[in-house]
């Protein structure tokens, strides 16, 4: 492929990413408008129930009454925080766009906000194609619905609250506390091995690194001297992580079927595939990235569908356009991904960009502050 053609493809991709990210922020604004200025938001405020906490692949009912509106608001705050982190991580959004302009595969782990439209839309197309394929052979994916006897207004409010809060709750339950725990144990074992070999490892650093592994697994691995996706590509994923990734993905698929709500047996495979992709993104970038990818599938579309203000222009016109744009970018993303894979060369191992002399012993607060500015997260 000639340089000029590659460059043209790169510019098309970068422009599509910018447009997509703009619609992401519009979706957030519409979500806030739904919560604050519509009947749907008012109805959400009337919904209460026991607090449900997901962790370690399990569901816990906490004897605390939770208001659905506050859970939705808290989720939106988390989304905004994750977007802020995504915009500045790995060199920043502009740097990520520049890495796309040449039209060739980025040589380093690019900024997540620049990659999210491509990854999310491509995964959307793959999941949709898989669902259609299963449906053609009689395996239904199903749809979310409410039990009989519930009014439509309450049903819509309950579905909105559930869908919006799911990215945070489920990522904590299936990625952060499950896959993250496996990474934290690997980090702890490596630290223990280093101590046995005579290296000085203060307790404060060990504890801080263990918990950092839950939020930023790649960064914690690098700080412990272990390979990560950023430094070694897929070879940076250990056997333990692969096993945990496949297991949690299977449980994630089963969770959607056994949890009811209207999903059919076909949801197992599509949810498991999505869970696998979410896990890879989590290991590569950190918790903020998989939460945003999950947000893409849950919040992004429902905000356009459910906002009825301005004479319903967003639900009647905006929503179909968003769906078509996502399909187009998804197909485009699959095409350029195939091209990138066809030109794949085994990457040279990248050494971590940080270096701490042996005599330095940063406190946990400093270690946590460093993680927020690491190129890994």
Q: Give the percentage of residues in beta strands.
A: under 5%
Number of strands: 2
Briefly note the structural class of the backbone: mainly alpha
Total of DSSP H or I helical runs spanning 4+ residues: 14
* Percentage of residues assigned to helices: over 70%
**What string gives the helices and strands in order?**
HHEEHHHHHHHHHHHH
Mean pLDDT: 89
Number of domains: 1
Q: Between the first and last Cα atoms, what is the distance in angstroms?
A: 33 Å
Name the overall outline.
globular
C-alpha-based Rg, rounded:
22 Å
Question: What strand order characterises the main sheet?
Answer: 1-2
Q: Runs with pLDDT <50, length 5+? A: 346-377
Largest sheet: 2 strands, antiparallel
Would you mind describing this structure in some detail?
This protein has one domain. A hairpin with a 2-residue loop joins strand 1 and strand 2 (58-67). A two-stranded antiparallel sheet has the order 1-2. It starts with a helix and ends in a 5-residue tail after the last helix. Residues 346-377 have low confidence and may be disordered. It is 71% helix and 5% strand. It is built from 14 helices and 2 strands. The chain is mainly alpha-helical and 377 residues long.
